Amino acid sequence: MAAERSGGGDPARTLALLWRTPAEPKPVGRKPKVSVDQIVTAAIAVADREGLGAMSMARVAQELGVGTMSLYTHVPGKGELIDLMADTVLQERDLAAEGTWRERVKHYADRTRAVYQAHPWMRDVSMVRPPLGPGLMDGQEFVLAALADSGLEPRQVTVAHVAVEGFVHGAAASEVDDQQLAAATGESGDSWWGARQVFWDDYFDVERYPAMTALWNAGAYDTEGTLADNMRSSFDYGLDKLLDGIEGGMR
Amino acid sequence: MAAERSGGGDPARTLALLWRTPAEPKPVGRKPKVSVDQIVTAAIAVADREGLGAMSMARVAQELGVGTMSLYTHVPGKGELIDLMADTVLQERDLAAEGTWRERVKHYADRTRAVYQAHPWMRDVSMVRPPLGPGLMDGQEFVLAALADSGLEPRQVTVAHVAVEGFVHGAAASEVDDQQLAAATGESGDSWWGARQVFWDDYFDVERYPAMTALWNAGAYDTEGTLADNMRSSFDYGLDKLLDGIEGGMR
DNA sequence: TATTGTTTCCGTATGGCCTACGGAAATGGG
DNA sequence: CCCATTTCCGTAGGCCATACGGAAACAATA
């Protein structure tokens, strides 16, 4: 399937849901069996356990013990529900750190990474047209405040922000991708690569790939950790180098 | 839908397809109406036009004027077809550049970016368990050769490689995400943001978001270009800073 | 030409998905 | 009791991947 799309529908309705604008009390009419919060919570639970692909309207309704179509009374559609899910888990970040601007940016990256770890389906949510809710906005404010304290010019802050934001979400997503695939297919990344040993035996050509061969012979791939360990250290390394570059560009 | 998954199935069969290992000629039996190449080409054409979500087996078969099930004679399943599509478009990169190691890495980033631009559905293809075909491998060889010339220690080359590869694919993906959404929904990114003007009017709180407000007042968001232009310069900026950091770390 | 072995083609069927529509059911006030 | 209002949800239409097995095409042989 292609990536889950959100951000559709009527902006006013979606924003009201994201910010939980309390509709004026309606003392008249049948009592609701479920609330928006319950729907979002149930949807997150399903996606956490079985992935975003398994998060169907029918599945969520079943989880709550109501009919499928009942959900549409509270939520305009699946796209908007995904918006609500994403903003909700982004609110789980605890962004109240002190320290230098670098420490704060790294804290932000760490907390965001934790969200992806806890909710691997975030990999499948596009962030180019993000849910403009409190979860996203609080995060933006936090990073921008940190970058603004770095001494960069205002215009540079916004450019650096896009780069940092892109790196953090991208790295967290690809790190989590492995786990998500492991859960979905029942095969770990290490085992997947192991099963592709045939490739090195039957297809790899040392003459076509001299640089890779040289690195291999130099022991560059003799790592002790698992695939997940390596992806974790690459995340930290890449962010460090990016911040080094941003810092260096200020001089 | 969640991200399209590939890399499943029997490794030996998939590798044989990726490297087009010619099965021994079969002069006996009914003549095939379609070839693997035709199927892959048709699938890419559909995905280019209508996105990976529209690339169904039925749709591809229709494109070729054959029955849906005929495809399964030549390709094990949809996952493997996506593997073949991805490796095929990665082969479109022309990676024969001269220059310093930095110039070559930037050339690689530029060519990879071009692939995503031409085939936006690549955003939806996971690269954590990549198709081990010539398209992917030639790219890896090219970057590793460049990084190995930078003077980094072998072990450091592999770490930097993961960071660069992650950045390039991540940035190209999010850049293209916007265009893909524009094509799928018929609404451009600029127009989408315009429709969310309500947010700034009704929900944005200057006291809750002082850093954003200050940047706004400083004119940091007074850009003349389109959203696409800004994403493009962020791509270049981020890669530059990342390479600065890698270079600086060698000292 | 008729037969046989081999390969490809593809119709059918199963079980899933989202959501438009409209009627039934519940609730509080008069 | 009646009625306005709100929520609940069954049905139905049109998508999807792919397992299965028989029909059809072709080359070599008799």
From TrEMBL, chains A, B:
It comes from Lentzea waywayandensis. GO terms for molecular function: DNA-binding transcription factor activity; transcription cis-regulatory region binding. The keyword Hydrolase does not apply. Residues 33-93 form the HTH tetR-type domain. This is Regulatory protein, tetR family. InterPro entries: Homeodomain-like_sf, HTH-type_TetR-like_transc_reg, HTH_TetR, Repressor_TetR_C, Tet_transcr_reg_TetR-rel_C_sf. One of its GO terms (biological process) is negative regulation of DNA-templated transcription. It holds the Pfam family TetR_C_1. PANTHER family: HTH-TYPE TRANSCRIPTIONAL REGULATOR RUTR (PTHR30055), TRANSCRIPTIONAL REGULATORY PROTEIN (PTHR30055:SF151). Residues 56-75 bind DNA. Keywords: DNA-binding, Transcription, Transcription regulation.
